[in-house]
Automatic annotation (TrEMBL):
Tagged with keyword Cell membrane: yes
Domain EH, first and last residues per copy: 15-93
Membrane topology field: Peripheral membrane protein
Organism: Spinacia oleracea (Spinach)
Domain Dynamin-type G stretches: 193-428
Main location per the UniProt record: membrane
Name of the coding gene: LOC110788668
Domain EF-hand residue range list: 48-83
Name listed for the protein in its UniProt record: EH domain-containing protein 1 isoform X2
Length: 538
């Protein structure tokens, strides 16, 4: 199963002129984005069934932005034209061998009349406008260009814009007041919202992480190294770009349009082991991949890395939308370092998927035993009653080992491969997700509680030390008082370590209005935002 970019293909120059004219007509507010309401009015002129139009929108809005730009609009029009010709609208059309340049624009009922009417109206308005006297400069002297009003959700033009607005107005004030960025996760920037979903690959060396990426992209990425020993000795972000190039970590971490500014806190020792690999690829239009150094095992894990490997892994885990843990049938033992890495993913359990790679190296009976052994090993490390989704496959470009696979094994691997591809395509973007909001609320409760426990005058230093020493008990008090789930609390040891650098007396008191604003955002604002940008034909 392949993924394509949004635009199916280039259309002819004549069609492009027509589609541009149609798009300008359909875009009622002229902002370059066709919303669901605009689409319902315009697409209705095609006389297609609602189910067909639902599929057209779903395929054209492949990035799930909640609107169509010009390119997506052209894709939609090509699909409408095919539907009118009797084709069934499915995702498979994207990979079909059509002569797309010769796909004619669809038939749209009464559109030409409406276009002519609009052009006539614009012409008459421009004539009457030119006859009006120019207003004097003095008429603007007493009007203010400043506005104290906050941006309303009704004025946002995409889900991303809406989430930025909500975060800045409601969640960020809570995070800033209670130092969430120092204890849990850095404050979000515009680049975090604009970035594509990220997928991180983790695993011991030689489990096929880099080969997995090469298999997905059907080509190698700039700077990729593959071998039986630990060859990827750095964190590599593989993302979409205009041409093939590698950018050093020191440069990437300070670029305002990239969401990696927070990595500067890990120092130059890490940044020298970090790079960004850019290349034009339709798959990378959907998400960004993060290749990581092989987790060490045996004697090698006693060698100290020059940077905080677990800290960097935790940072990426918080930013990523999906985490793939790779194993192969001959490396099922989980090393001490890999256990620590998996432990550092605590709080992101729902993002974790397991890939049992190189499955064609064992026969079907052995594969069943390997799968059972893997689940047993993971059960001891993940500490969760839920079963993590495991994909079984051989993600490389070598031909399948038919002698080992057999017809049943081959069919299984193909189905698993397709399921993983579908999962990758449907990654939810979670920049301002509910998990972060919950964590910020719990953090505010803890900081507010510690502030409340401090005496007014005497014995402040002694009380602060007692609170730090008995932090686990204080967590339990907060949990009972506000009826919070224990699993959502931060790691006690990490929290204690950070607290040592603060004066509790300077913490802000708990302000319930800020908590209530976040609750309202979660229960009302975000559902309303998603509702307004969903597929208009649902």
């Amino acid at each position: 199963m392949e993924m394509s970019g949004t635009l199916i293909s280039p259309c002819s120059k004549e069609s492009l002129v027509i589609y541009q004219d149609w798009f300008n007509f359909a875009d009622s507010d002229g902002d370059g984005r066709l919303t669901g309401n605009d689409a319902i009015k315009f697409f209705g002129m095609s006389d297609l069934h609602r189910e067909d139009l639902k599929q057209v929108w779903a395929i054209a809005d492949a990035k799930r932005q909640g609107f169509l730009g010009l390119q997506e609009f052209i894709t939609a029009m090509q699909l409408v034209s095919l539907a009118q010709s009797g084709h069934t609208i499915t995702q498979d059309l994207l990979t079909s061998e059509f002569d797309w340049e010769n796909v004619k624009p669809p038939s749209m009922q009464d559109l030409n009349k409406k276009l002519a009417k609009k052009k006539s109206k614009i012409k008459s308005e421009s004539i009457s406008e030119s006859m009006k006297l120019q207003p004097s400069r003095s008429s603007n002297w007493f009007t203010s260009s400043r506005s104290s009003k906050k941006i309303q959700l009704s004025s946002v033009t995409s889900i991303t814009d809406g989430l930025k607005t909500l975060y800045n107005q409601k969640l960020k004030p809570l995070e800033t007041s209670y130092l969430f960025n120092d204890f849990v996760s850095p404050l979000l920037t515009n680049s975090d919202f604009d970035a594509k979903p990220m997928v991180m690959l983790l695993g011991q060396y030689s489990t096929g992480k880099t080969t997995f990426i090469k298999h997905l992209l059907k080509s190698s990425y700039p700077g990729a190294h593959i071998g039986p020993e630990p060859t990827t000795d750095r964190f590599v972000v593989v993302m979409s770009g205009p041409d093939e190039r590698s950018i050093p970590g020191n440069t990437v971490a300070v670029q305002a349009d990239m969401p990696y500014n927070g990595l500067t806190s890990f120092g130059t020792a890490f940044l020298s082991k970090f790079e960004c690999s850019q290349m034009p690829h339709p798959l990378l239009e959907h998400f960004t991949l993060v290749d990581t150094p092989g987790v060490l095992s045996g004697e090698k894990q006693r060698t100290q890395r020059s940077y905080d490997f677990l800290g960097v892994t935790s940072w990426f885990a918080a930013k990523c939308d999906l985490i793939l843990l790779l194993f192969d049938p001959h490396k099922l033992d989980i090393s001490d370092e890999f256990k620590l890495v998996i432990s550092s993913l605590r709080g992101h359990d729902d993002k974790i998927r397991v890939v049992l790679n190189k499955a064609d190296q064992v026969d079907t009976q052995q594969l069943m035993r390997v799968y059972g052994a893997l689940m047993w090993s993971l059960g001891k490390v993940l500490n969760t009653p839920e079963v993590t989704r495991v994909y079984i496959g051989s993600f490389n470009d070598r031909p399948s080992n038919e002698a080992i696979d057999g017809p049943i094994g081959r069919e299984l691997l193909e189905k698993e491969h397709n399921d993983l591809m579908a999962d990758l395509k449907d990654i939810p973007k979670e920049a301002c997700d509910r998990r972060r909001a919950r964590a910020a609320k719990i953090h505010a409760y803890i900081i507010g509680h510690l502030k409340k426990e401090m005496p007014v005058m005497i014995g402040k230093a002694k009380t602060q030390q007692r609170l730090i020493d008995n932090l686990e008990d204080e967590f339990r008090k907060v949990q009972r008082e506000f009826h919070l789930p224990a699993g959502d609390f931060s790691n006690v040891e990490h929290f204690r370590e950070v607290l040592n650098g603060y004066n509790f007396d300077k913490f802000e008191k708990l302000k319930l209005q800020k908590i209530q604003a976040v609750d309202y955002m979660l229960s009302y604002d975000i559902p309303e935002l998603l509702k307004s940008f969903r597929n208009p034909y649902n």
